[in-house]
User: What shape does this take?
Amino acid sequence: MPKCTTSDLSGTNAVDLGPKLVSADRALGAIKAGSRIYIGTGCAAPRGLLTRLEAMEPGPADLEFVSFLTTSALPQAGGSPRTRFRHRAFFVGSEVCGLARSGQLDYVPISLEEIPRLLTSGRLPIDVALLQVSPPDARGFVSLGVSVDLAPAILSVARTVIAEINPAMPRTYGESFVHLDRFDALVKVDVPVAEYVHPKIGEIAERVARYIASIIEDGSTLQIGLGRVPNEALRHLTDRRDLGIHSDVITDGLVDLVEAGVVTGRRKTRYRDRIVASYCLGTRRLYDFVDNNPGLQLLPIDQVCHPEEVARQTRMVSITQAFAIDLTGQVCVDQFEGAFYGGVSTQVGFTRGAAHSAGGKPIVCLSSTTDDGASRIKPLLEAGDGVGIARSDVHYVITEYGIAYLFGKSIRERALALIEVAHPRWREMLLSSAKKLGYVRSDQYLASQAAYPVHEERVVTVKKDVKIMIRPARAGDAGALQALFHRLSPDDIYTRFFRHLRSMTYRDLQTLCNVNHETEVAFLAVTGPRENEEIVGSACYWLNPTTNLAEVAFMVSPEWQGAGVGTALQTRLVEYAVSRGVRGFVAVILPRNTSMLRLIARAPGIVTTSRDEDAVHVTVVFPASAEVSRPSQQEEPQFASAWQEPKTYRGLPPKEPHASPQRETCSGLALVP
Amino acid sequence: MQIREPCQINEFKVIDDQENEHALIEYRNATKTPSLKLLPVGRSWFALSDGTPVDQIGDEAFRIESSGTVLRKPKRMHNDLR
Assistant: This one.
């Protein structure tokens, strides 16, 4: 056999590979019948060796291949993988899902970070490892290239290790280096590393992606996963700053963010300034980016994905794409309608880790319907739908219709929140089913079958440069609205409802938040992050179709009275009404509620008043060509940038230091000079 | 069509001659607006919390019809929410 050195492969740093460098046939000839063979992950699968092994006549019998994820690894015939061996996989990707259906592939549901323990404990003995690596350096170390993930654990247990040495394989940093001593046979190849391109996504998935991006704050550290939607979300993060990456996998989308200066890792609390991942799945562009890049650390899967490690990052955001979810929040990720697809993968670890991270956000995303129009939000998961993420672990659920936050919420609250992000076509069915299951009250209704109008959300600045969000109300806001009610003083309540009220009935709460957004309109002023909003103000109108005038009413939390919340709510309400052709507002106000009288007097248009024994009746008719100015302090809608709640003022409401005694004593309705 | 019906619109404490406290409830016929405000019509009438009818005999004075007991709003406790 001619002597070969690595200079033949890379042209530099010649290292004598000695007798380990052999032909594929000779390397594979050492494999005995009945062996269990590990295949390198994803784009690092040794495709030449696999093709040769499948073609050997007679080859070793009864082989079992073990893999985490294969993509273009197996020989193809007629668009399907052609293999005569059995497979055991931790993830059912598109390449092997046909094998799963035919029974040739055994799926092992397991969190990836647990696999090294499975291997080293001897419960899954590995006879042979087939890998693809970079050429060695001058000291004889090859790089595991684009896939480290399970390889260190495999290398610690496999009896025989055979690798393709490919000069096209990037040299990556981290725990990627393995000395030539560890290999039993090396086979020279010189082929492009397999590439993976995420299929293009449609308009619905893009809307989901935009919602995801909208809650990712500056300084967050991201785990993206393999899903198309999470990867699309990367494209909507170009205006963020100092993002970090701590992810099982990185894809091409990352390169754009690094080149744009968005991903710096500067605010990471572990592996600061470094991108941390376990494997790469992308195109040559990604491979060139990771090649000899000390800013990237590829680490073993259990080091990257263990929940405790994930939780050490602050503002950790994990994004999991799901197949379906039931109304209690159980998430289906690896078996849908009877078929196994995908896997548990790292989703449980990252979901739990992100949940325990300070400021972390575990996100589950899915389109609201399947390609054939069935709802992915189901009353109950069905036979053949597997639960991958427990309901107790679920926090954010995002569809193209909005964001539901479930953590710590009751079954009733979860069901309502999920119905509100379901496809409008399925909401009535879901509500009806939820009633039958006893998840929601029998008198629960949904005034609007339309999508939650996220485009009507506004971030506005009130006094003292404090930002609040003014958004349309939802049926699920009843609880938070009740909390606002109970913060009101008895006098606030009297001036708002013209009676003494100790509590609000559920029905009345629904009147104030469960609206159709057309003839019944309700906006809320909220502070705090989405998962923990506090309602500080409420403004509603109800349209009288005969007069085309709408009755308005406001509530503002005592701590926020005098801060401009009432003005901001009224401005938004007027803007909304004018855009829908409403002629004007009417209000009934107690005579001593001067603050409310002053507020409504500032509404644009002609104001007329009349008074009876008990109340002042105010009518505001908007100008004919109502050019209602949008509030000058208005900022971009929610989609345009992340709603980054200024936490500094939470709990420190900006009450006016010299509030007038009048306002102090009769401030039932919102008001502010 | 708006429905006018008797509504509890207020509740406050009153005391009798022995300084015993009673909860007095004010009712009026009222219509409820879409915004959940009660628009009262006509005069108020009163009853104790157990339903015993009470007459108003002055701005701050009341009398239990059945017993003739006079009730008044305690001074410094002007808790009528209006």
Remarks:
- The CA atoms of residues 561 and 664 of chain A lie 9 Å apart.
